[in-house]
Specification:
The protein contains five helices and three strands, in the order αβαααββα. It has helices at residues 2-23, 31-37, 39-79, 84-138, 162-169; strands spanning 26-29, 142-145, 159-160. The chain is rod-shaped and about 85 Å long.
């Protein structure tokens, strides 16, 4: 009798779990497409490109200065116009300059990465809030990010929230 009661309770729980799961709505959205269509994202990208261009320009100027000095110093060393002591001093100067150029390249790259994160974080948070709001209005329990093909293996007719989220964001 106890076994029959246990089997009955287990069956009721399984049916209840399946019913609850059937009530859950699943939707998907391509977050990367959403982000790239947001005006704030486009503005941030333009600013980041401008910053990157200025870093690259400064880096190019430093490299040109290095190359010009190196050429001049080599010509003077080969022609005998420079003493051994001067050549050693210049070699040290060029090593220092090479180090400064390398340090500039590394620091500018890190700065650009930090600025990118700082600029894109509030945009992502805005998109996330809009996705959550639309999902609640539509009664969606789960929203999957369709950006990465590895995380979404199969979608058949799922609800795509892209247009509703764009509307929520005002574009």
């Amino acid at each position: 009798m106890k076994n029959l009661k246990s089997i009955f309770i287990t069956a009721v729980l399984l049916v209840s779990a399946q019913f609850a799961t059937a009530q859950s709505k699943v939707a998907h959205i391509d977050v990367s497409v959403l982000m790239t269509t947001m005006p704030e994202y486009k503005n941030a990208q333009a600013q980041l490109e401008k910053i990157q261009k200025s870093y690259e320009e400064e880096y190019g100027n430093m490299v040109n200065e290095f190359q010009n000095k190196m050429k001049l110093y080599q010509e003077e060393a080969e022609s005998g116009k420079a003493t051994e002591a001067l050549n050693e001093s210049r070699a040290k100067e060029m090593d220092d300059m090479r180090g400064r150029i390398q340090a500039y390249r590394e620091s500018s790259s890190k700065e650009l990465e930090t600025k990118s994160g700082d600029m894109l974080k509030p945009i992502f948070e805005k998109a996330q809030a809009a996705i959550q709001k639309v999902a609640k209005v539509k009664g969606v329990s789960y929203v999957l990010d369709a950006t990465s093909p590895g995380t979404l293996l199969y979608v058949e007719g799922g609800m795509d929230l892209m247009e509703d989220v764009k509307k929520e964001l005002g574009f």
